[in-house]
Amino acid sequence: MGQDNCNPQPGDLIEIDRRGYQHWALYVGDGYVIHVTDEGATSFMLSSSVSYSIRATTAKVKKEILKDVVGNDKWRVNNKYDRYCTPRPVEEIIRRAERWIDREVAYNVLNRNCEHFVTMLRYRKEVSEQATKAVSSAAAGVAAGVAASELGLPAVGVAAVAGFAVIAGLAAAAAGVALLRMTLYRSASRR
Description:
The protein is of the alpha+beta class. 42% of the residues lie in helices and 24% in strands. The protein starts with 12 loop residues before the first strand and ends with a helix. InterPro entries: H-rev107_PLA/AT, LRAT_dom, Papain-like_cys_pep_sf.
């Protein structure tokens, strides 16, 4: 579970090491966190004219016991963005976080993930270093594939990575458009 040196305070960001990624939550006190989870969420398939399908997802905001969310994974308090962003007052962070409990939110790994959610609550800005790194890696794969191709080098593996990166980027863009359309549709149907 957690480390002995972790002593979260209300309003702190909790980074949980999961296999292949980090899950983020906001500590609200008394052993509880608020976080975005796929439990109780919905997802649906969308098709685009580019002849591939993507999955657009919503996630549920939950208030749960930190130990239950962490399980056997390692975790730490990580307010790393305090260097660049001024946190809101703690009372405001907690008040805003509690308004989201049991609500469904749009979810996308690249631009609406759990880290974006908690940084929006703490700093007024949606930031996700792991999403930025994923996009940068995809762009590097594309650039490597193009460079290898232009030089006439055998780049089967690099080209495959580059091709995947392009598809992933197109899928993310299409998901964003679809979620915008869905939001506009929901907004129009409420009038």
